[in-house]
């Protein structure tokens, strides 16, 4: 691929250059410029590469995540993978766009009862508020026995939905904590 | 598959290059059909009729793989002569109780040599109370538990006995002729026979056929039976446990398999152990025996060790033999606590707080309006996501704000939207659709206050425990005694550090408590409290103290099975039940299809994969009289998790709706069931409420005029389910910017729809609008002598994101498969009209006008049991008159 680019050109129109060069498909020397040659792939200038897996469907395509200056600069399929052999579909290919999106939430947003707007909330304060509410709801809706007198030691006041996009380790802690808390309406996409 | 799992589809294309024939059965013509040899359009919701037709073709023409069928399936087992099939009972099996709409499966059991009655009854008792099982979605447990039938039922290996499974099956499917398939499915006999021929010719000793489905198959009121029909066919043709065969579920989320194995589901615990039930599992022994089922064959015999290891992993030192390992700390389930029941409970004000973890039910769940009205009636809601999704903003911009049903100033729900870490900002494992775990390294820190779920739940647990410290209330013991010490990485300051996912994985794998040595597999789990492990089927993922899921040995440096890439449960076996890839003597069925075989000299199983069988158990091994558990598995029993070691052509237990799949119409259908008076699945789970109307039965006068068309929904390559991970992403939003409704030219003509113009689709729940896409890719089908128009829509849009639109799931009501409580959301009836839908309060009036005209306003829906009165009576006569649990009738 090391072809010399055209000098600033006597033939400014690419088609003329193609004809002159015999590069009829326009994939060779005739379409190169100094700029093209100065461009290097983001993958070669990355500081490090992390092994990852596509977050969308369950095919499980392996990804290589290229990081420079603590930012994700590129995500590509891993060619060594027996699952995807380096390929990614439109979604997997868009996953760099997903993780670097400007639209991502980066602070906690809070909507008070009856409010018409969001307000910002400090992370640890929000955690304290959630912990308080979990304990209160648990207390208010606790059942030692059910309406037929059977021992149930649970709360029917706290429910959860989600897990299919999360890690096994996360699902493990979620189920463990909720079970200890007595919350049983714990569900995820596998039911949907 | 090319649409929704594109990179997986590369292997289909590889196979095609090597001469494989690709058949695509789908109502729509898609990117998959475009490269298939044959596209077979089918009426949505008629799959059992189609597969039943193929089963009939195989049985009538004796095309089954006989040696495999006799040795490895329950074809030879003899069924009780009390069993009556649907042809005798107008679409019901024997044992139906019309009031509870459940079966007593006593008459479905296998016959017994001596005392028929007693043993049949004992088997059925093990099967338990089916109404209770429906409420607890016990099908999901049976998925991994296998059937708990007795180890040695009587058999006739000549397959001639009139009550042997093979003959019962043959009679059951005899009516599924090519003519009937054509009538019900709208598939021409020619197309149908071509599929039969391709499938059967490509199965046997030398060849295998794979059945690949996507999980839209589960989203039917008979979803489990669809998959059962596939399993019967694959077993008859000898395609299970063999390379290039099998049934592959293409699941839709990165770790949905993992979240089923280590479930965030109400009815199961890690490793498919049942969530304790107040009625059935009062003691540790009850709980373990219900899984272990003394007398059955197989690896569930060690359930005691699996259960105790989980309890030790949860409650550590506090869990001792004396206190039954804290079994009493477990909360108890008592019925249906599934997501749909819970949402209706929210509407009724019974639920206070709700967590949404990377899930967007306002768009992604059936009956979106019910989802949003439920969320608007909570004390508090925590949403953890990457973006400001619809489920976080329902109080300000949902369709119900437009209709006036949710008024922000009157909506009391307190909402917390926490930013979540993305897949590159945390470490951990996903389990992909072939049960393979792959470890992800953390590439960068999450931005701002974004955190992982591991962080969120670890710290929530820590804070809750700190608040309760010193409590003497007995109910707080499970939290205070919880083993909750995970080492923290300290990038967020010591107190608020990120827990180590690797340490959690170690706990999931399990270790020897005294030494901390990781277990190398579930065989090392002890039932004496000396080991602990959070998920027995994942034991081995941390064998030798090495994170096996992080292995990335290049595919170029290993065999095509690629055993050193990631780690698959159980025990890194890549192909389940692979003992069946060898013949009864342990030799490969053919050289071409050699995979795992018995090495006589070495006295062990060997091959390309880890054998899914005891390594040293010879094919000639026969179980001594009276043995059970692992010892009862004979050298010719490949299906080691089943109570009798055989593949189930006939399922006497574990299914709420019958031992064999039979064709029922979808809950909403413009057609009568051609085969029986029983219209739909008689045991389906329904919630009869004014806010959940179902479109009327085709027998109701006028039904066909109000909702004349059939609709289905599916994914686009460029979007991901409820859109949270695609509508907010520029590249993907640009590729598929707008909601559309795909219709045939004939329907466009009939309804005056203009290509690229607007139209809207109406059901008794809602109306949604989209751009019209007129295309010949959708073909009207001839069904029962009438033309049926089908429309389809993607379901990825909502009001948020870079591109917005109406949400298709708003069109569905809630009716569930009785085995697993998954909703029917791939088929319904509708009307299609040109132009945009009404907005504001006029939308509700418009939809209610339809419901009124259809006669379902304020009503729950159709009669469910429609078999003739005589058939109902006769079926009921086969009940054993068992007591049902007190509240089982609550919400059928
Ligand atoms: S790249 Fe595409 S096919 Fe591969 S896992 Fe991601 S979404 Fe699925």
What are the SSEs and their pairings?
The complex is a heterodimer of chains A (192) and B (892).
Chain A: H1 14-21, H2 34-38, E1 48-53, E2 62-68, E3 71-77, H3 90-93, H4 95-100, E4 108-111, E5 119-121, H5 123-140, E6 142-145, E7 151-161, H6 168-181, E8 183-187
Parallel strand pairs in A: 7-8
Antiparallel strand pairs in A: 1-2, 2-3, 4-5, 6-7
Chain B: H1 10-17, E1 23-25, H2 31-35, E2 38-40, H3 47-60, H4 66-72, E3 96-97, E4 102-103, H5 116-127, H6 130-135, H7 139-145, H8 165-173, H9 178-185, H10 189-201, E5 211-214, H11 223-236, E6 247-250, H12 258-261, E7 268-269, E8 273-274, H13 284-292, H14 303-315, H15 339-347, E9 353-357, H16 361-364, H17 368-375, E10 380-385, H18 390-397, H19 399-403, E11 414-419, E12 428-431, E13 436-440, H20 453-468, H21 477-480, E14 488-489, E15 498-499, H22 501-509, E16 511-512, E17 531-532, E18 567-568, E19 596-599, E20 604-607, E21 685-686, H23 703-706, E22 709-714, H24 730-735, E23 740-743, H25 745-751, E24 758-762, E25 767-774, E26 781-783, E27 786-788, E28 790-794, E29 815-816, E30 828-834, H26 841-854, H27 869-876
Parallel strand pairs in B: 1-2, 5-6, 9-10, 10-11, 22-28, 23-25
Antiparallel strand pairs in B: 3-4, 7-8, 12-13, 13-18, 14-15, 16-17, 19-20, 21-29, 22-30, 24-25, 24-30, 26-27
Iron/sulfur cluster (SF4) sits between chains A (54, 56-57, 59-61, 84, 88-89, 91-92) and B (5-7).
Question: Explain this structure to me?
Answer:
The complex is a heterodimer of chains A (192) and B (892). Chain A is α+β, with helices and mostly antiparallel strands and 192 residues long. In chain A, the strands form three sheets. In chain A, strands 1-2-3 form a three-stranded antiparallel β-sheet. Chain A has helices at 14-21, 34-38, 90-93, 95-100, 123-140, 168-181, and strands at residues 48-53, 62-68, 71-77, 108-111, 119-121, 142-145, 151-161, 183-187. Chain A is elongated, with a radius of gyration of 28 Å. The longest helix of chain A has 18 residues, at 123-140. With 892 residues, chain B is α/β, with parallel strands linked by helices. A six-stranded mixed β-sheet of chain B has the order 23-25-24-30-22-28. A three-stranded parallel β-sheet of chain B has the order 9-10-11, with no helix packed on it. In chain B, strands 12-13-18 form a three-stranded antiparallel β-sheet, with helices on one face. Chain B starts with 9 loop residues before the first helix and ends in a 16-residue tail after the last helix. Strand 4 (108-111) of chain A pairs antiparallel with strand 11 (414-419) of chain B, so a sheet runs across the interface.
């Amino acid at each position: 691929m090391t072809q010399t680019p055209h000098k600033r050109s006597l033939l400014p129109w690419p088609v003329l250059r193609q004809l002159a060069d015999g590069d009829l498909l326009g994939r060779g020397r005739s379409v190169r410029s100094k700029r093209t040659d100065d461009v290097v792939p983001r993958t070669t200038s990355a500081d490090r590469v992390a092994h990852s897996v596509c977050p969308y469907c369950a095919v499980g395509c392996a990804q290589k995540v290229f990081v420079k200056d603590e930012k994700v600069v590129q995500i590509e399929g891993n060619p060594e993978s027996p699952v995807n052999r380096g390929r990614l579909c439109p979604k997997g290919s868009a996953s760099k766009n997903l993780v670097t999106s400007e639209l991502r939430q980066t602070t906690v947003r809070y909507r008070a009862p009856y409010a018409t707007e969001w307000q910002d909330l400090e992370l640890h304060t929000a955690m304290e508020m959630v912990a308080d509410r979990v304990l209160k709801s648990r207390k208010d809706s606790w059942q030692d026995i059910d309406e037929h007198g059977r021992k149930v030691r649970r709360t029917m006041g706290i429910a959860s939905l989600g897990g299919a996009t999360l890690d096994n380790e996360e699902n493990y802690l979620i189920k463990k904590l909720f079970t200890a808390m007595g919350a049983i309406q714990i569900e995820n996409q596998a039911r949907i | 598959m090319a649409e929704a799992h594109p990179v997986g589809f590369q292997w289909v294309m590889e196979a095609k290059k090597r001469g494989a024939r690709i058949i695509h059965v789908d109502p729509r013509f898609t990117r998959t059909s475009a490269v298939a040899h044959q596209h077979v359009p089918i009426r949505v919701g008629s799959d059992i009729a189609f597969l039943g037709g193929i089963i009939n073709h195989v049985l009538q023409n004796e095309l089954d793989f006989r040696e495999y069928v006799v040795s490895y399936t329950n074809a030879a087992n003899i069924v009780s002569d009390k069993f009556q099939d649907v042809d005798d009972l107008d679409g019901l099996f024997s044992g139906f109780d019309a009031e509870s709409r459940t079966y007593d499966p006593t008459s479905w059991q296998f016959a017994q040599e001596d005392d028929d009655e007693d043993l049949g009854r004992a088997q059925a008792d093990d099967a338990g109370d089916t109404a209770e099982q429906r409420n607890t979605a016990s099908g999901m447990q049976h998925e991994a538990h296998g059937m708990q039938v007795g180890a040695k039922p009587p058999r006739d290996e000549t397959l001639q006995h009139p009550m042997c499974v093979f003959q019962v099956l043959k009679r059951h499917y005899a009516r599924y002729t090519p003519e009937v398939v054509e009538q019900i499915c709208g598939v021409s006999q020619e197309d149908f026979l071509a599929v039969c021929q391709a499938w059967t010719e490509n199965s046997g000793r030398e060849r295998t056929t794979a059945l690949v489905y996507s999980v839209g198959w589960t989203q039917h009121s008979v979803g489990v039976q669809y998959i059962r029909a596939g399993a019967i066919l694959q077993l008859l043709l000898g395609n299970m446990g063999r390379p290039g065969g099998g049934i592959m579920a293409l699941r839709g989320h990165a770790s949905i398999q993992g979240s089923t194995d280590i479930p965030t589901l109400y009815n199961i615990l890690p490793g498919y152990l049942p969530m304790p039930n107040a009625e059935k599992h009062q003691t540790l022994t009850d709980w373990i025996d219900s899984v272990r089922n003394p007398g059955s064959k197989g690896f569930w015999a060690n359930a005691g060790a699996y259960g105790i290891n989980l309890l030790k992993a949860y409650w550590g030192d506090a869990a001792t033999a004396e206190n039954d390992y804290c079994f009493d700390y477990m909360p108890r389930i008592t019925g249906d606590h599934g997501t749909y029941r819970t949402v209706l409970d929210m509407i009724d004000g019974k639920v206070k707080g709700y967590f949404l973890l990377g899930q967007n039910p306002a768009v992604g769940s059936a009956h979106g309006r019910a989802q949003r009205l439920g969320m608007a009636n909570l004390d508090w809601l925590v949403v953890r996501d990457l973006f400001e999704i619809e489920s976080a903003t329902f109080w300000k911009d949902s369709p119900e704000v437009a209709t006036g049903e949710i008024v922000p100033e009157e909506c009391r729900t307190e909402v917390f939207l926490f930013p979540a870490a993305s897949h590159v900002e945390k470490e951990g494992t996903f389990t992909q659709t072939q049960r393979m775990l792959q470890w992800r390294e953390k590439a960068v820190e999450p931005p701002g206050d974004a955190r992982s779920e591991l962080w969120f739940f670890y710290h929530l647990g820590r804070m809750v425990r700190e608040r309760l410290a010193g409590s003497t209330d007995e109910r707080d013991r499970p939290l205070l005694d919880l083993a909750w010490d995970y080492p923290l990485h300290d990038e967020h300051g010591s107190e608020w550090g990120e827990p180590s996912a690797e340490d959690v994985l170690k706990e999931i794998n399990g270790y020897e408590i005294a030494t901390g040595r990781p277990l190398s597999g579930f065989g090392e789990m002890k039932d004496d409290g000396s080991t602990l492990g959070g998920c027995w089927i994942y034991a081995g993922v941390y064998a030798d103290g090495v994170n096996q899921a992080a292995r990335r040995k290049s595919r170029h440096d290993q065999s095509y099975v690629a055993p050193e890439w990631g780690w698959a449960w159980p025990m890194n076996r890549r192909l389940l039940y692979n003992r069946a890839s060898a013949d009864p003597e342990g030799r490969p069925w053919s050289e071409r299809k050699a995979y795992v075989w018995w090495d006589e000299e070495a006295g062990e199983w060997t091959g390309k994969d880890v054998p899914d069988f005891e390594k040293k158990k010879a094919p000639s091994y026969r179980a001594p009289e009276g043995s059970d558990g692992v010892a009862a598995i004979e050298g010719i029993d490949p299906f080691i998790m089943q109570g009798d070691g055989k593949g189930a052509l006939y399922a006497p237990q574990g299914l709420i709706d019958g031992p064999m799949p039979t064709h029922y119409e979808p809950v909403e259908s413009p057609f009568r069931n051609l085969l029986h008076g029983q219209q739909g699945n008689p045991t389906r789970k329904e919630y009869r409420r004014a806010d959940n109307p179902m479109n009327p039965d085709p027998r109701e006068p006028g039904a066909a005029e109000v909702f004349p068309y059939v609709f289905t929904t599916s994914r686009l390559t460029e979007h991901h389910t409820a859109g949270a991970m695609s509508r907010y992403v520029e590249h993907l939003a640009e590729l598929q910017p707008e909601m559309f409704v795909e219709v045939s030219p004939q329907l466009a003509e009939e309804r005056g729809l203009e290509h690229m113009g607007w139209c809207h689709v109406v059901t008794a729940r809602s109306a949604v609008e989209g751009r019209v896409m007129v295309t010949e890719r959708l073909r009207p089908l001839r069904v029962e002598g009438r033309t049926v128009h089908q429309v389809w829509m993607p379901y990825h849009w909502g009001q948020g994101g870079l591109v917005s639109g109406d949400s298709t799931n708003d069109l569905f009501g809630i009716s569930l498969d009785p085995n697993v409580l998954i909703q029917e959301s791939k088929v319904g009836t509708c009307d299609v009209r040109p132009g945009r839908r009404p907005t504001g309060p006029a939308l509700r009036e418009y939809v209610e006008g339809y419901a009124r005209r259809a006669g379902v306003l304020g009503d729950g829906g159709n009669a469910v049991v429609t078999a003739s009165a005589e058939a109902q009576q006769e079926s009921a006569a086969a009940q054993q008159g068992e007591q049902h649990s007190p509240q089982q009738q609550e919400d059928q």
